[in-house]
UniProtKB/TrEMBL annotation:
<protein>
    <recommendedName>
        <fullName>M18 family aminopeptidase</fullName>
        <ecNumber>3.4.11.-</ecNumber>
    </recommendedName>
</protein>
<comment type="similarity">
    <text>Belongs to the peptidase M18 family.</text>
</comment>
<keyword id="KW-0378">Hydrolase</keyword>
<keyword id="KW-0031">Aminopeptidase</keyword>
<keyword id="KW-0645">Protease</keyword>
<dbReference type="InterPro" id="IPR023358">
    <property type="entry name" value="Peptidase_M18_dom2"/>
</dbReference>
<dbReference type="InterPro" id="IPR001948">
    <property type="entry name" value="Peptidase_M18"/>
</dbReference>
<keyword id="KW-0862">Zinc</keyword>
<keyword id="KW-0479">Metal-binding</keyword>
<dbReference type="Pfam" id="PF02127">
    <property type="entry name" value="Peptidase_M18"/>
</dbReference>
<dbReference type="GO" id="GO:0004177">
    <property type="term" value="F:aminopeptidase activity"/>
</dbReference>
<keyword id="KW-0482">Metalloprotease</keyword>
Amino acid sequence: MSDLQEFNKRLREFLDASPTPFHAVEEMRLRLQEAGFSALDERGEWQLEQGKGYYLIRNGSSIVAFRCGKDPVHERGWRMVGAHTDSPNLKVKPTPELHRHGYFQLGVEVYGGALLNPWFDRDLGLAGRVNYENAQGQLRSALINLNRPVGVIPSLAIHLDRDANNNHSVNPQRDLPVVILQSEESSDFRALLADALGAHGYKDVSAVLDFELSFYDCQPAAMVGWNEDFIASARLDNLLSCYIGLESLLAADTSEHTVLVCNDHEEVGSQSAVGAQGPMLESVLRRIAGDEITWQRAIANSMMISADNAHGIHPNFSDKHDGNHGPLLNAGPVIKNNVNQRYATNSETSSLFRRLCVSSDVAVQSFVVRSDMACGSTIGPLTASAIGVKTLDIGVPTFAMHSIRELAGSKDAYNLRKVLTKYYQLDSVVDAV
């Protein structure tokens, strides 16, 4: 098996094991532990050692991992990569039970800007975090993944909706409740969850108190195309970048101060205690620095690369792109630009990245949204404005962003890993720009 094939195999395993941000962070934690990184407790004292790796987790859904370099951090700064752990999906409502015509359904909320039509007629699994009281009256939390088809959202037959192929809009309240079983009796979803927890080894569940659960497509990630040119999977936006960042961090040597931050809640604005607009990253970096002057000097010597997927030019809809800025799959990572600061790229940070790509023998592309279309955003501008660090926005080109199943090139993630590994090992991100 070639290095590329091995990389994509591990990537697919990571995607399949990460149906929610909670599971993605747990998978990253396991890989960091295996690589010798140590867990930190924010409530305790930190004794950080040169050349050692550490990580901390908040809410089970956001993670910061870092290595302490050889030289003082105020002299060298941090080489940082940022991504996000969340993806658009359907989340189960707190009181979801719907009993209609002998079918038991669960009401859902749409999380983020999901492309809804592809959710119909899929084999849906269910995963997330469940909080419960045990037999001793203690509050406990459990990760659960019902990795089998437990629900479906059936389409209405074409015979009953003759205009479906011409004008089909989705009403989330009416159209998206998920069918999970057939019964003439009323069912209690929390009771079903308690049984599921018991089947997963949690034998002490007295009562399920609350949950954060999401439906997801059970179809595993796959290599697609006659020559396997593509990788298809749910949640490529943005677990692809989380995995690339993690692989790059682990592949880099330990001489520089390196950071990977993967925040939750980007798809809904990042305004939370663990989102990029919250205090998590800054509080960690300030604690590493130790005092205000060291912090300020370190930030002045630092750089952030925000990694989030880019829109590849779709061969059927090429008019949706600016003619000079239509990234191709398998043609290299994409520098994302926007003059209205929806992306944080400037000419200095993009020039550094271009040099890194050249030295890594990796092609590089640019994306600018059409001037008559609105532009999305990333954690890049939020991080740049929060901590004042020079920032670049880049990403791997993809199709079908925010669909239940997205598509990326089979070579792009591997090549971006090469570039970010080299970035993590730069002697200076100031002299270079």
